[in-house]
Task: inverse folding
């Protein structure tokens, strides 16, 4: 029985991070816990950094996590996993999507997008477990690249002692009904990828 | 039914439940979703006003007519509405009137961090401070009751963190409701809803008495409550800060204020007498702390340990508590040094296909010839590289007046004001009239993307579509400028680099008063935007000159391939991001950028 969990979902605007965090907060409520989720939106429409905090507990106070206390960091983009690393509690778990979205500072400016091996090595210095997911190809296989966030949630659901049906139901309640089937498939593919 | 609602969704629900029949707002982060959500409830009227003062004036008219009403705006929007607000305090209200002020500690998407609780003291009316979505929903109703009972405007103050966080609310789905006509207007002696000097002088002492009456009410109001715990430490707190307090100081005694002005001083005094040490934890200004100190209540700690600037967090409150020795716990574990990996920043950028791109590319090339006075909107990103072409930027609608003042004071350079369509209707008309009147030789570029974009695509007078989706006449910006007496008015296609350049040049050469160019192109997020075939770079033609990088498009990436003569990286285009706007293709000197389909024709 889960007593409390701190999640931090991070990514780039347009990746469906906020929808996924809405669903994760709803799952907390469906499990009979108190839940809060918090993010800041505005200014960067597309292409900016997105962070969303989700907390489950008997009674949640602050809607944001405390730095260094995040149990599961879920990064929808590779570089973002490294940007938010110090929020993870030492020994915590990272789920990271292998997809790379080059920031303007590297595409136009003098910055460099670090190689994947370096990013993953950095994650291992703090995390107890790092799970790399190929969410975009799996979403494509499911039939729509926009279901990458469902693939990510499916991966997350395998890590927690929860009934997968609770997650699947929460996803299906949130997405438009015409996308129900493709999301159902994406959820299955996401779960199988970890198994 | 337990549902997760954001603070803004909860305010909309609370307003509907409390019988608000009419609401008006101008969009502004973090307030925007309040009206967007309220507009979906049955039996109500919800509107976008052209600016915050208009929104409040709309609400005042509704209140004087007897309706319960709400006006919503971001914190700096209250400055725009303040003229009416201050005098509304004197006239008082008929139907309950709530002004929602959405403050932005941390300045996530604002020009400043002003603490609008100060408006309550300044204007002598109450300020309610919810701590989560359930509070936000419930406090709207309480605020309306207080507004009617004491015939006063009230502020309901939310913050970015509250407005954009979701927490559990127990609510039933809305039932059907009819929009009701107001009762026949009560004219009375004709002096109730007007304010002239003789009335203002009579009203002032009555306002002071009203404030004392509200403070007396606050002494026993349920929205101010004490959570007794260990009496060695007592914390007075309010708003979102309460959530940090109840985690960091778990087990101590907490006085949670639902209203930060006027304060229930007797309640606080007796709380202070019961606890050994009294502290105040609040975000931004020492608003409560100062009031307690002025009342002679001994405050052991406040802003000496809780930061004055920026948004509060659990860490900041915990650090302050540890620093003052108020909590008995080991300081947070020293975390291992973050690994030596440099993570490149991801600054916001104009979207691929953005209609502002060609204009700022041109401005960046010509900036030495003119100063640029900017305004508030997505085009504020003209401040950032690669454009770095905005010399002044201060508030909504200020661009035209600043450009005007710069020139009239003897500025040597030409002055160009850039202003969006929504901002033009918000507060661009008055300064344009002033520029025409005073023959100010400035260029005004109205960047008309046919939407209020930065707050998330709200309609405005330029689109003609209302918040509740009625379609009507849209206002033609060029025609308005001509009618106002501007002698040079030209419209130009936002994605035509040459045409933008030529039109700007002609406008700058114009000598007879202000010249206006309307740069027209729909925001990529609107239905008016038509994506064109996406583009690709022919690596054999690319000479790595870097011109296309200067249009600042997130879809243009450095290729791994280098141009042998210079060793510089060639360009490539991310096909997932490209909208085919062709701005990059137009600036390419070797015609290396062409539509994808064309390149591969016959292959």
Result:
């Amino acid at each position: 029985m889960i007593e409390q969990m701190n999640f931090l979902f991070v990514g780039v605007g347009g990746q469906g991070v906020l929808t996924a965090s809405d669903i994760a907060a709803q799952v907390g409520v469906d499990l009979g816990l108190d839940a809060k989720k918090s993010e800041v939106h505005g200014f960067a429409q597309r292409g900016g950094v997105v962070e969303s905090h989700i907390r489950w507990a008997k009674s949640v106070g602050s809607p944001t996590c405390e730095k260094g206390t995040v149990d599961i960091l879920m990064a929808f983009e590779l570089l973002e996993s490294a940007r938010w690393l110090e929020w993870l509690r030492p020994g915590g778990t990272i789920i990271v999507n292998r997809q790379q979205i080059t920031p303007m500072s590297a595409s136009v400016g003098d910055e460099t997008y670090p190689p994947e091996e370096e990013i993953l090595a950095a994650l291992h210095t703090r995390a107890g477990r790092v799970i790399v997911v190929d969410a975009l190809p799996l979403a494509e296989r499911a039939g729509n690249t926009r279901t990458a966030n469902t693939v990510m949630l499916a991966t997350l659901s395998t890590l927690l002692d929860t009934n997968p049906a609770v997650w699947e139901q929460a996803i299906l309640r949130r997405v438009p009904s015409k996308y129900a089937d493709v999301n159902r498939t994406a959820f299955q593919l996401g779960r199988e990828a970890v198994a | 039914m337990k549902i997760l609602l954001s603070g803004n969704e909860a305010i909309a629900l609370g307003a509907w439940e409390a019988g608000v029949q009419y609401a008006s707002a101008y969009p502004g982060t973090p307030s925007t979703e309040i009206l967007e959500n309220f507009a979906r409830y049955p039996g109500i009227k919800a509107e976008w006003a052209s600016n915050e003062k208009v929104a409040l004036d709309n609400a005042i008219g509704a209140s004087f007519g007897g309706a319960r009403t709400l006006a919503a705006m971001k914190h700096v929007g209250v400055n725009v509405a303040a003229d009416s607000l201050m005098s509304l305090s004197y006239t008082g209200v008929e139907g309950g009137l709530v002004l929602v002020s959405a403050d932005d500690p941390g300045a996530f998407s604002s020009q400043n961090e002003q603490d609008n609780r100060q408006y309550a003291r300044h204007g002598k009316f109450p300020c309610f401070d919810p701590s989560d979505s359930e509070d936000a929903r419930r406090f709207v109703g309480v605020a309306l009751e207080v507004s009617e009972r004491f015939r006063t405007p009230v502020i309901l103050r939310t913050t970015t963190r509250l407005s954009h966080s979701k927490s559990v609310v127990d609510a039933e789905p809305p039932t059907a409701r009819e929009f009701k006509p107001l009762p026949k207007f009560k004219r009375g002696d004709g002096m109730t809803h007007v304010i002239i000097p003789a009335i203002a002088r009579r009203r002032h002492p009555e306002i002071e008495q009203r404030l004392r009456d509200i403070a007396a009410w606050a002494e026993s109001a349920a929205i101010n409550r004490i959570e007794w715990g260990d009496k060695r430490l007592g914390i007075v707190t309010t708003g979102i800060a309460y959530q940090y307090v109840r985690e960091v100081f778990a087990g101590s005694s907490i006085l949670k204020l639902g209203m930060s002005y006027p304060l229930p001083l007797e309640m606080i005094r007796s709380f202070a007498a019961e606890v050994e040490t009294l502290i105040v934890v609040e975000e931004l200004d020492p608003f409560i702390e100062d009031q307690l100190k002025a009342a002679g209540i001994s405050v052991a700690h406040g802003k000496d340990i809780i930061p004055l600037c920026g948004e509060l967090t659990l860490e900041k409150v915990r650090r302050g508590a540890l620093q003052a020795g108020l909590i008995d716990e080991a300081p947070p574990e020293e975390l291992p040094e973050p690994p030596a990996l440099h993570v490149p920043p991801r600054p916001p950028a104009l979207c691929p296909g953005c209609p502002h791109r060609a204009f700022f590319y041109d401005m960046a090339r010509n900036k030495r010839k003119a100063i640029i006075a900017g305004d508030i909107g997505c085009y504020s990103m003209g401040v950032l590289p690669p454009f770095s072409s905005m010399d002044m930027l201060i508030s909504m609608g200020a661009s035209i007046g600043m450009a005007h003042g710069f020139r009239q004071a003897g500025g040597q350079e030409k002055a160009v004001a850039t202003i969006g369509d929504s901002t033009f209707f918000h507060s661009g008309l008055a300064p344009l009239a002033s520029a025409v009147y005073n023959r100010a030789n400035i260029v005004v570029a109205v960047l008309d993307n046919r939407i209020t974009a930065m707050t998330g695509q709200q309609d405005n007078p330029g689109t003609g579509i209302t918040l509740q989706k009625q379609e009507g006449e849209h206002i033609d910006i060029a025609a308005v400028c001509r009618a106002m007496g501007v002698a040079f008015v030209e419209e130009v296609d936002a994605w035509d680099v040459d045409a933008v350049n030529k039109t700007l040049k002609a406008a700058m050469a114009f000598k007879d008063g202000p010249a206006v160019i309307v740069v027209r192109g729909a925001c990529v997020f609107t239905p008016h935007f038509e994506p064109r075939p996406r583009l690709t770079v022919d690596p054999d033609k690319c000479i790595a000159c870097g011109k296309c990088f200067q249009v600042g498009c997130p879809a243009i990436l450095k290729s791994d391939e280098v141009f042998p003569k210079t060793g510089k990286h060639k360009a490539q285009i991310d096909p997932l991001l490209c909208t085919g706007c062709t701005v990059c293709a137009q600036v390419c000197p070797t015609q290396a950028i062409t539509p994808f389909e064309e390149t591969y024709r016959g292959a």
Chain A has eight helices and six strands. Strands of chain A lie at 5-12, 34-39, 49-57, 70-75, 88-97, 129-133. The helical segments of chain A are 17-30, 78-83, 104-107, 116-124, 135-142, 148-159, 164-174, 180-194.
